[in-house]
Amino acid sequence: MSDRAASVLTGAFTGRDPLWSRLRDDATELAASEPTLASFVHATILGHERLEQALAYHLSQKLASTDVGSLQVHEVFDRAYSDNPALGQAARADLTAIYERDPAVYTLVEPFLFFKGYQALQAYRLTHALWTQDRTALALHFQSRISEVFAVDIHPAATIGSGVMIDHGTGVVIGETAVVEDDVSLLQGVTLGGTGKEHGDRHPKIRRGVMIGAGAKILGNTEIGAYSRIGAGSVVLRPVPPASTAVGVPARVIGRAGCEHPAQEMNQLLDLGPEDYVI
């Protein structure tokens, strides 16, 4: 964990919620500095006692429709957070990941209020909770709304770990049997899809700490080894070993990952030295 991330998590194991306190402080400063947004900030963050309550409200306002109103959506989301504390833990880990990895982020309030990659991921987590409760129709309804509102399409049955950053978000597609482990970073336009009409376990398995560049397509039930990098625009059809860099169409392994934690470093340049290349 970087010093920057530690600064918002100090006290995490002492019964306090330092991330929520820091988010509220950031929100208070934003409301004071931009009066036009003050009512929005108070309704979305400062009017709530816990991060989970704020997220349930914020996402319900985003995903409500003429079919299912905001009060109904809020009730469903609020209950999901109450019934499953892991949802709130993942939301904190994801927010910390963005704060730590994205150089465009200066406060916690920015991704919470404005970044659709973060919001879409938290909304997916709620649909996944519904899916596991056999409320599949409602989960699919919200999947459709998430796609309409955020341009991110994640099947409710997909499995996604915590500490995940979806940067920008636009055009991200993650299929039904895909697995994304903890501490992964992926950018806009990434597809974790199938290869055709096959059934069963047919989507990629992305192991811990992987970074996937913008526009990359990983297709089929193939594994991307832990702490690897997938270059922007690549089409991956075969497994990638751990701690490797794969690029191209179709992708091939060109060397090692270049660092121990690609998802945190977010280095998308192929600045490999001679010692890093596969011979």
Summarize the structure.
The chain contains ten helices and 15 strands. The chain is an alpha/beta fold and 279 residues long. The protein has two domains: 1-152, serine acetyltransferase, domain 1, CATH 1.10.3130; 158-279, UDP N-Acetylglucosamine Acyltransferase, domain 1.
Rg, rounded, reads: 19 Å
**How many domains would you count in the coordinates?**
2
Order of helices and strands: HHHHHHHHHEEEEEEEEEEEEEEEH
- Beta-strand portion reads 5-15%
Q: Which strand order does the major sheet show?
A: 3-6-9-12-14-15
Classify the helix fraction into a percent range: 40-55%
The CATH class of the largest domain is identified as Mainly Alpha
